[in-house]
UniProtKB/TrEMBL annotation:
<dbReference type="InterPro" id="IPR050351">
    <property type="entry name" value="BphY/WalK/GraS-like"/>
</dbReference>
<keyword id="KW-0902">Two-component regulatory system</keyword>
<dbReference type="InterPro" id="IPR005467">
    <property type="entry name" value="His_kinase_dom"/>
</dbReference>
<dbReference type="InterPro" id="IPR013656">
    <property type="entry name" value="PAS_4"/>
</dbReference>
<keyword id="KW-0547">Nucleotide-binding</keyword>
<keyword id="KW-0812">Transmembrane</keyword>
<keyword id="KW-0472">Membrane</keyword>
<dbReference type="InterPro" id="IPR036890">
    <property type="entry name" value="HATPase_C_sf"/>
</dbReference>
<keyword id="KW-1133">Transmembrane helix</keyword>
<keyword id="KW-0808">Transferase</keyword>
<dbReference type="InterPro" id="IPR003661">
    <property type="entry name" value="HisK_dim/P_dom"/>
</dbReference>
<feature type="domain" description="Histidine kinase">
    <location>
        <begin position="309"/>
        <end position="529"/>
    </location>
</feature>
<dbReference type="InterPro" id="IPR003594">
    <property type="entry name" value="HATPase_dom"/>
</dbReference>
<dbReference type="InterPro" id="IPR000014">
    <property type="entry name" value="PAS"/>
</dbReference>
<keyword id="KW-0067">ATP-binding</keyword>
<keyword id="KW-0418">Kinase</keyword>
<feature type="domain" description="PAC">
    <location>
        <begin position="236"/>
        <end position="288"/>
    </location>
</feature>
Length: 530
């Protein structure tokens, strides 16, 4: 049936019903069109605005009668108001593109002076859709839809501002922040910590681990602690030493926590580092000051004690010498004129020996005071061993000198040493050996050497009963004194002086043997400059 025949076949009543249905459909469409919150403008094929809903006019701030009938004239299309275009000048190219009839993705445009009294700048989201030109039932043209997204744009701007503030707080915080993946590699790191490391972000993120910037102790801590964090534990104020690329050392306190996903699996770790380098340095300085203060206090106490010892050691022997001299005067007063009585000669000998004891005590006490105050290195020189032995033996009481026997197991004739200090040390060893040996028994001094290390060895052997058990382990400490000898109880200075003198020479003193058959002490005087 031809179209004309079909049209003629429609009864008048049916035609009226179709017209009514069409009218109602158009009415519903216009109602929807009018009540839409999205702005719609319809252009015909010639670019003339044939429809514009209320939402479009409200969004644009332009009366409807100023929109309808507008054409695609470039000079007239944007100029909907006498005081200027609603579109921002920078967005004109976008508006022109929307009128080409080609499909366009969403564009965001600015709308300036949107209401008749002039309002703030607004933002519009615009979409253009061409009507099908190949459908004879459609006239062709373009449908432009747009919505006011000013609030959304403002919220996005505020969110961007807040996000930037958060980024600044993260990046510029006065502490280091970083996040690690399960493999321990950096996922994120802030600018502060990057400055500590002396690196750029792309040099660290995805490439390095914190262990790359730690010392051996820190790397071991990282190796053992990372699995614990990945297992769900946390670290609190762990001290580590951080080394930057250029060698800068920084003391930090590390705090680390795990980050879980919805299934309570650890997906990464978050860490914060606090720089405590200055605090660490201040603490070290404080500790050093405390140690120095304690050292000065101990030194003052030792010097005070030395003065007390000096007073005792000098006063008592001088009183004894005075008593002996007074006795000698009484003996000499009763002797024949011109005679040298034996009792008087013995008194003079005992007086001489007592003065020798006084001299030894003064030497030892002053030596301790000097050794305690010494801070610099000793002055060593090449010293004849025979001269050293002769001076040390000459310092002994006259009736004790013949008890000292010398043996040589070395061809060395000289050695590098501080002559005065080594004389003092050797004399104290000999005095100690003579005092703890039976009267008249020999004391043997043996000279030897060794090659590794290169050193002179001096062994002093007595015939005494051995070192008392209570002195083992503290024999060379100041104040350690053995059982009373014929010279009286000492103050434990002799062997302490020997120990200090050998330490200053980078040598040592040690007990080679001790027991009922006697004791042998060895001085090892190192000759190697290294």
């Amino acid at each position: 049936m031809a179209p004309q025949q079909f049209s003629a076949a429609i009864l008048p009543a049916d035609r009226a019903a179709l017209h009514e249905a069409q009218r109602q459909g158009e009415a519903r469409l216009r109602a929807v069109f009018a009540t839409m919150t999205e702005g719609l403008i319809v252009n015909d094929a010639e670019g003339r605005v044939v429809e514009a809903n209320e939402a479009a006019c409200r969004i644009l701030g332009v009366p409807r009668d100023q929109v309808l009938g507008r054409t695609g004239d470039d000079a007239q299309w944007p100029a909907w108001r006498a005081d200027g275009s609603p579109w921002h000048p920078d967005d004109f190219p976008g508006v022109t593109a929307q009128r080409t009839g080609l499909p366009q993705r969403e564009q965001v445009m600015r709308l300036g002076g949107a209401d008749p009294v002039g309002g703030p700048e607004r933002w519009i989201s615009v979409n253009a859709l061409p009507l099908a030109k190949d459908d004879p039932a459609l006239p062709g043209g373009v449908v432009v839809s747009f919505i006011d997204i000013t609030t959304r744009v403002h919220l996005a701007a505020q969110n961007a501002k807040h996000l930037q503030e958060i980024v600044d707080l993260y990046d510029l915080a006065p502490c280091g922040y970083h996040a690690l993946g399960p493999d321990g590699v950096y996922l994120r790191i802030n600018a502060t910590e990057l400055s500590w490391l002396g690196c750029q972000r792309d040099e660290v993120v995805g490439r390095c681990r914190p262990s790359d910037f730690l010392d051996e102790r820190g790397r071991e801590m990282f190796r053992t602690q990372l699995p614990r964090i990945l297992a769900g534990e946390s670290l609190h104020n762990v001290p580590i030493t951080l080394y930057g690329r250029h060698g800068q050392r920084r003391e930090v306190l590390l705090n680390a926590t795990p980050v879980f996903d919805a299934q309570r699996r650890v997906v990464m770790t978050r860490s914060v580092m606090h720089d405590v380098t200055e605090l660490h340095q201040l603490r070290q300085q404080h500790q050093a000051s405390q140690a120095h203060g304690a050292e000065l206090t101990a030194l003052l106490a030792e010097r005070t004690e030395m003065l007390a010892v000096l007073a005792h050691e000098v006063r008592q022997p001088l009183h004894n010498a005075l008593a002996v001299l007074q006795g000698a005067r009484r003996v000499d007063a009763g002797a024949p004129a011109g005679g040298l009585g034996a009792p008087g000669g013995d008194a003079l000998r005992r007086t001489t020996d007592m003065l020798r004891v006084v001299i030894d005590s003064v030497d030892n006490t002053l030596a301790v005071a000097e050794l305690l105050a010494r801070s610099g290195p000793i002055e060593r020189g090449d010293t004849e061993l025979q001269a050293l032995l002769g001076l040390a033996i000459a310092d002994l009481p006259s009736d004790e000198r013949q008890r000292v026997q010398i043996r040589r197991d070395t061809q060395a004739r000289s050695a590098s040493m501080d002559m005065s200090l080594m004389r003092l040390a050797l004399r104290n060893l000999l005095v100690n050996a003579l005092a703890y040996s039976p009267p008249g028994s020999p004391v043997t001094v043996t000279l030897g050497d060794c090659d590794d290390p290169l050193a002179l060895l001096i062994d002093v052997q007595d015939q005494g009963p051995g070192i008392a058990p209570e002195l083992h382990g503290r024999l060379f400490q100041r104040g350690a004194s053995g059982r009373r000898t014929q010279r009286g109880a000492g103050h434990g200075l002799g062997l302490y002086i020997v120990h200090r003198v050998m330490a200053l020479h980078r040598g040592s003193v040690q007990v080679l043997a001790t027991g009922p058959a006697g004791t042998t002490l060895r001085l090892q005087l190192n000759q190697d400059d290294d």
